[in-house]
Design goal:
By secondary structure, the protein is of the alpha+beta class. It has five helices and ten strands; from the N terminus they run ββααβββββαβαββα. Helices cover 25% and strands 22% of the residues.
């Protein structure tokens, strides 16, 4: 079970509680990785797990609920899963017309110390906010961070100018083409993302860069057809 280590928000949130580029750091406050017993006077550098419990204090309207809703929008993909409300249009209100919004979670394996990033990018089509939910572009991804590509160095901007969603995706895809250990996986479908997380994110279903820099994965239609075939076989076996 991975533990949340750090969270990064960029250009996201309602007007009164905006996160322009904020990193919430929960790392290094827990027990040593692997739950090893450390000697009292041991001076060897030890990797520690994230904080087992944290308290966030902000004044009313400071953005506590916004923060939790943004985090859970990555953990539970899809606007139907929103913490603290039944309103299915909450996420749309957190993205301004010209925003390219990022929510990225850094996770740590408590047994090995291995890190994993899971992220979400949002942007309105043609930079025009709309009542139509489908006009809000959403992409989910995960990767294994390296010294070059990690939570702090993700190519979200060039100087002070934010990269477009497509440019950001292409930059990460180029980095993955140069370093396959990143195990980058992109998707625009909630079902694909949920399936990838259930099968150990970024390990069993990495994307494969093609000549055009796009990521390829098993088509959703193929997955559904295979599922139907498996169910049909099981039905026939029971009847026989």
């Amino acid at each position: 079970m991975y533990e949340l280590s750090r969270v990064r928000f960029r250009t996201v949130g309602p007007a009164g509680a905006r996160f322009h580029d904020v990193t919430l750091d929960l790392s290094g406050a827990g027990r040593p990785v692997g739950a090893e017993q450390v000697a009292l006077f041991d001076t060897t550098a030890t990797t520690h797990r994230p904080s087992p419990a944290s308290l966030i204090l902000l004044e009313n309207g400071g953005g506590k609920s916004v923060l939790l809703k943004l985090v859970f929008s990555v953990v539970l993909p899809g606007r139907r899963h929103t913490v603290g409300t039944t309103n299915t249009r909450v996420v749309e209100k957190f993205v301004m017309p010209k925003d390219v919004s990022h929510i990225v979670l850094e996770w740590m394996n408590p047994l090995t110390g291995e890190l994993l990033l899971t992220g979400k990018v949002l942007a309105w089509r043609n930079q025009i906010a709309s009542e139509v939910s489908d006009n809000l572009r959403e992409r989910w991804y995960c990767l294994r961070p390296s010294d070059e590509i990690n939570l702090d160095t993700l190519p979200m901007a060039v100087g002070t100018k934010s990269c477009t969603l497509d440019t950001y995706r292409d930059e990460l895809q180029e980095a993955y083409a140069a370093d396959q250990s990143l195990a980058l996986y992109w998707t625009r479908h909630q079902s694909d993302w949920t399936g990838a997380k259930r099968t150990s994110p970024c390990r069993k279903r990495p994307s494969t860069p093609c000549a055009r820099g796009r990521s390829s994965a098993t088509p959703t239609g193929c997955t559904r057809r295979c599922g139907r075939l498996r169910r049909t076989r099981r039905c026939l076996q029971r009847r026989s």
